[in-house]
Amino acid sequence: MADDKSDFQGKRNLESLARIPQTKQKEATRRALELGLEAAPSIKDRDISLFSRGYAPAFAGINTLLKMPYCEDVREVGKYEAAFIGEPFDTGTTFRPGARWGPQAVRRISALYDGYTINGAVDLHEELDLCDLGDVYVIPGNIEKTFDQITKAISYIVEQGVFPVICGGDHSLGFPNVRGIAPHIDGNVGIIHVDRHLDCSEMQMDERMHGTPWYWTCHEASATTHRDHAHMHDVGLPNCLPENLVQLGIGGWAGMRDAAIIARRRGSNVLTVEDVGRLGPEKTAEIALELAWKGCKAVYLSFDIDSIDPAFAPGTGTPEPGGLQPREALEIVRLVATEGLCGLEVVEISPPYDVNDNTAQLGLRVMLDALAAMVTAGKLGHRDAVAI
Question: Is residue 225's pLDDT more than 90?
């Protein structure tokens, strides 16, 4: 038992949060009154406007992520430190479609949140210039054209010095996302992949679908393909190596035999959900960071929502019972993000199969917890500039 019963993390976090001013909130209130007009005379709280133009009420207004600014002119994205990007594409699914609605669901449920958390003593509105950049224009009937659109979009964002917070869409998008980031990294890129499935098959149904992204992302100089497809000039990005691919939470019964052969041949790192349970979140994150960062200049986090047990996250295309518990998954995300990331994606949120927005909410929490961890660690945002 602690000697000082008042020395709780919650108390320290409240004190830390008190050092962060509410400048953005006050500005939002002023702007809402200016643009939304004054409320009716019977309203006593004169911070309430006539038309909803601010953060409140949560159920009103036009949804962006956390009601952050909508950056309609993409050329102005460089004014921000981070941008939320939707990739509403699910042509790469092989069983249950619907992930194209993931970005909208995440935006909708994000209205529930205020942008600050006591857990990490973080206020994202104050400490991070985050915008919602809208969605990439995907081509539903064409995987390869969509990949090209996404690679160009993510490359543009990273080139502007902005951190991409990406919401899919299905997991085939992992490849074009990293393909957009990797050329901007002066060195190798490690990948931490949280999932129930290996997703490193060569092909599915004769296409690069949601079970294939890491086959095409991770470079394998000696690999050859027997398939005659025009886009298959090489396997992998030259600065993404299999030994820096760490896959956590793997398991279950959904066809991974060919992917297991490839993972073994390449020497990528696989930790099953049982490994995570035995090691615990802290040790799991420690191992993942050591392997992913070895010889690398940056690490990318890819989080498939089906890594979480479908009892908590039913809204996904390939549900697999026995997955991670939300608390341990979020702890792993926070620990991994504390060391800094070059990009973050959350994929496979499929609202048609969701219940009470639970899956969308968990996907949102992955994004928010990762951002908060990076802000706290000084890897993103501007905490030092606003803290009193």
Answer: no
